[in-house]
Specification:
Structural class: alpha/beta
Number of domains: 2
Largest sheet: 8 strands, mixed
Bound molecules: iron/sulfur cluster
Radius of gyration: 20 Å
Shape: globular
Number of strands: 16
CATH architecture of the largest domain: 3-Layer(aba) Sandwich
Strand order of the largest sheet: 4-3-2-7-10-11-1-12
């Protein structure tokens, strides 16, 4: 039966964080002695250069507290993450991680050198090229931020492992798994590979920063910071994400990596099997939490003919850049794996979008530093009440 620790924490203060994280690990029966002499990959969410208070990345003080616990326990922490567009080095430099890395003297891993992880029990993606650094780790500490997400509805422990795939290779995966359902199944294949695919399997502990979470159109600059005042931990990412989603009060049926994760029985097959230690879910639930908007009522049956340009344009939200915010930086163009974005045609000072080619992955929206892209409803979405 998976145990999830759920503790209240309302500040990013070093002493408080270390106490809460130590208690979280004790609650799930994790022995700090196992860190002695261990090479510990510490993986925060470093999606893009962003300020801690925007709640896009795992708070740098949360990361610092974990790293200090690893060091004090005799382990060797290695920071590893693969941001969406920028290099890890550049992302660190442009965030408060720069100060943490320097003052704590932390080794930074190379996320771009890959090695293939084989997991024959995966549903579809049995061979995945991930950052080779994971193979040399004795233990992985995954530090997700709880956020809303345009495709997977929520992002937490399971989805954060997507960062094991280097840079823009990630956005190419959207072409291979273009629908919300397929993408979530791919993420679960990756989660299964990371959890069971190493030989011998590597322990992965998920310690979630849900103190300042994100609501609305997450997980990038378009999302809004939202206090949940919670720290969660567990060795089962699906269970951790389930509990976090329940704390936020979002519709769990839409959290595909959780509901489809249960079906796979990766250490947990239903909510009834999860034991929560610490606070109760209800005590930490905020009075309001704004979920991510869904693409359409068709998101779970997104198959031909529903993937045709006509259907997409009629019934699915489309990403639309706004002139008043756009700086023409073209980061959206860089991340778009389907080639649907080109330079401005001159009529408007925004990139040009080809909605017939666009697969509605919303990566452009996620990465736009100005939050200039919003979802606009498909031409006939209203007709179906979606
Ligand atoms: S929409 Fe956003 S990412 Fe794209 S060019 Fe404009 S500001 Fe840059
Ligand atoms: S235009 Fe945006 S939503 Fe469409 S495929 Fe490209 S990145 Fe994805």
């Amino acid at each position: 039966m998976p145990t999830v620790s759920l503790l209240r924490c309302d500040k990013y203060e070093n002493r408080v964080l270390k106490d809460v994280i130590r208690q979280s690990l004790a609650n799930i029966g994790f022995d700090l002695k196992s860190l002695k002499k261990a090479r510990v990959v510490v993986k925060p969410n470093l999606l893009m250069p962003a300020k801690d208070e925007k709640a896009i990345i795992t708070h740098s003080e949360f990361f610092r507290a974990v790293v200090q616990i690893v060091k004090q326990s005799g382990g060797i922490p290695v920071l590893l993450e693969s941001p969406a567009i920028h290099s890890l080095e550049r992302t660190i430099k442009k965030t408060s991680y720069a100060q943490v890395v320097e003052s704590e003297g932390i080794e930074v891993g190379n996320p771009t050198k890959t090695r293939t992880l084989h997991y024959e029990s995966a549903k579809k993606f049995k061979h995945l090229d991930i950052s080779g650094e994971y193979f040399g780790a004795d233990l992985i500490l995954n530090l997700p931020k709880f956020k809303t997400h345009g495709i997977t509805y929520i992002t937490g422990a399971v989805k954060l492992l997507f960062g094991a795939i280097p840079g823009v290779e990630k956005s190419k995966m959207h072409l291979r798994a273009p629908t919300p359902e397929e993408f979530s199944e791919f993420i679960l294949d990756l989660y299964g590979a990371m959890t069971y695919g190493f030989s011998p399997p590597k322990p992965i502990i998920h310690i979630m920063d849900a103190i300042l979470a994100q609501e609305g159109e997450g997980p990038g600059p378009a999302g809004k910071p939202k206090r949940l005042n919670a720290v969660l931990a567990g060795d089962n990412g699906i269970a951790v994400d389930y509990v976090a989603s329940r704390v936020a009060g979002v519709d769990i049926k839409k959290a595909l990596t959780v509901v489809n994760g249960f079906k796979r029985n990766y250490g947990v097959s239903s909510a009834d099997e999860i034991s929560v230690v610490g606070e109760t879910i209800e005590t930490l639930r905020p009075s309001h939490f704004e979920p991510a908007t869904g693409g359409s009522i068709f998101s779970n049956m997104f198959r031909w003919p529903f993937t045709t340009p006509t259907f997409k344009n009629l019934f699915l939200d489309r990403p639309a850049p706004r002139e008043e915010k756009c700086t023409l930086c073209y980061q959206c163009k860089k991340i778009c794996a389907s080639g649907a974005i080109s330079e401005s045609d001159g009529r408007k000072k925004v990139p040009s979008y080809d909605y017939n080619t666009c697969i509605r992955c919303y990566c452009c929206m996620e990465i736009c530093p100005e939050a200039a892209i919003r979802k606009e409803r498909g031409w006939l979405q209203w007709a179906l009440g979606s």
